[in-house]
Structure formats: C-alpha cells, structure tokens
Amino acid sequence: MSVLDALTAGALEDAARRRESLPLERLQAIAERTPAPLDAARILGTPKADSPGPHIIAEVKRASPSKGPLADIPEPASLAARYAAGGASAISVLTEERRFLGSLDDLRAVRAAVSVPVLRKDFIADEYQLLEARAFGADLVLLIAASLEPARLRQLHREAEGLGLSVLVEVHDEREIDAALGAEARILGVNTRDLKTFAMHPERFAELRARIPAGTVAVAESGVRTAADVARYRQDGADAVLVGEALVTDGDPESRVAEFGRAA
Ligand SMILES: O=P(O)(O)OC[C@@H](O)[C@@H](O)c1c[nH]c2ccccc12
C-alpha cells in the first residue's frame, strides 16, 4: 500500500469514528446553520490589485509524514490571523490527525479568526468528510487526484460544489490533470512533492502549467523556502502559491507572507 493510500484509509477510519458521535443528520443540521462559503475560485482567480506577486495560501501545519514534527502551534487561530495580517489570500488548515497532527477543531478555530477563504486540507474520499468541511466552516476542500478514481473524483467534486464549497484538485502528472479537467476543476494545484515518495520536483510545476487551461486557477504547492522560490513559481505562471513549512517555522510569519506575496 502506498503512503497516500494508507493516509487516505486512516482518514476514512477517523471520519467513521467521528460519525459515531456525530451522525450524518446532525452534521447536516450544523452545516445548514453555517454561513455560505466564500467563492474561493473567484477570489484566487482574480489577480491581486496591489501587487504583481501571486496569491499566497498559507498553511497551518504541525507535522508531516516526511519530516515529523515541524512546529508546536498551540493556537492555530493566532497563527492564521498573522498570516491574514501579512496579506495571505487564503489559509490552509491540515485536519488530518495521525501524521499531520491536525483536527477539525483547528479548522473551526481558524475559521473564527479570519475572513479570507479557509481550505480543509485532508485526505478526503467520502461525502461525510465533505459535509464536515462545510459544517466546520471551510470554504474550500482538497481532493487528491492520485487517491481517487476519475469517476469518483468527478462525483466528489460535484458533491462538494453542491454544498457550496470550492475545490482544489491536486495533481502531479498529465493523467491526473486530465482527470481533474474531466471533473470540471476550477482550481488545480500541482503538488511538486510526490505524495507517494515525498521526493520534491519543483520543475514539475512549469512542465504541467502548459496543460492547465486559461481561466482555471493554477496553484503551485510545496517546497517553498525563500521569496526566490515563490518568484520562480510566479514566473512559471502560478496564480497562487501554497506554503507550509517555511511559514510555520518562521519567527515572523506575517512579514514572511508579505514578502512572499510581493515575489514576482
Ligand atoms: O510544507 P511545504 O513544503 O510548504 O508544503 C505545503 C503543502 O504543499 C503540503 O503540505 C501539501 C501539499 N499537498 C498535500 C496533501 C496533503 C497534505 C499536505 C499537502
């Protein structure tokens, strides 16, 4: 079993466990009382008025399977508020519990702290997880093309949009781009870290960018350490850049987000 399959299986088990204490009907009732999501696809697809740099999607990430613990983050809400103060266009919150040490409580706390779109970053493979995202205040969810059959990707994509959520479809090769476009993805993220081997391939973004049609938001994900890395993705045609580790390990995340947001 690949790491990605194991992460997805674990996330599904965790969701099944949560469902025992919060059945679908009750979750649905909570989702109905939650304000309508922001149109993240429109926000990320509109160039920034005040800067030639890309939109920055700043991630709340405590740990990763490849690196282990990265940062403590006792208060995800205050970290997210600093990201937003630095001009982040969206906040990504890892909610996967086992290897990324995240939770839906983190998502809820971040939602309450910022007014920019919030992404639920997890290994989503069923409808219950989508409804959780909606009920806990996400505007945007991640679907990973490598972990879903094309028909299933299309189905979950449609379901998410039916809930009012935007979807970031993550890809790492041409075949997955085709699957994402088949699912009518409006936001496409090229993860330059291979989730099966964790190897970094920053050049993959430029290689795949040409396959992403105009009008579809192109996001470059992973491996950013410096403003020069952001500038490179921007020059390669990224509308948005998603950054995790470099921000959670920085003593001044607000300034760092601002610096990245100007990199062009
Ligand atoms: O910490 P980095 O190298 O800046 O990477 C962030 C983000 O791209 C990464 O966390 C990520 C991209 N796709 C994912 C899917 C699941 C979990 C995590 C991820």
Automatic annotation (TrEMBL):
SUPFAM superfamilies: Ribulose-phoshate binding barrel (SSF51366). Pathway: Amino-acid biosynthesis; L-tryptophan biosynthesis; L-tryptophan from chorismate: step 4/5. The keyword Methyltransferase does not apply. Pfam families: IGPS. Belongs to the TrpC family. HAMAP family: IGPS_B. InterPro entries: Aldolase_TIM, Indole-3-glycerol_P_synth, Indole-3-glycerol_P_synth_dom, Indole-3-GlycerolPSynthase_CS, RibuloseP-bd_barrel. Coiled coil: none annotated. Keywords: Amino-acid biosynthesis, Aromatic amino acid biosynthesis, Decarboxylase, Lyase, Tryptophan biosynthesis. The keyword Lyase applies. The lineage of its organism: Bacteria, Bacillati, Actinomycetota, Actinomycetes, Micrococcales. PROSITE patterns: IGPS. This is Indole-3-glycerol phosphate synthase. The gene is trpC. Transmembrane segments: none annotated. GO terms for molecular function: indole-3-glycerol-phosphate synthase activity; phosphoribosylanthranilate isomerase activity. Its EC number is 4.1.1.48. GO terms for biological process: L-tryptophan biosynthetic process. It catalyses: 1-(2-carboxyphenylamino)-1-deoxy-D-ribulose 5-phosphate + H(+) = (1S,2R)-1-C-(indol-3-yl)glycerol 3-phosphate + CO2 + H2O. Residues 7-259 form the Indole-3-glycerol phosphate synthase domain.
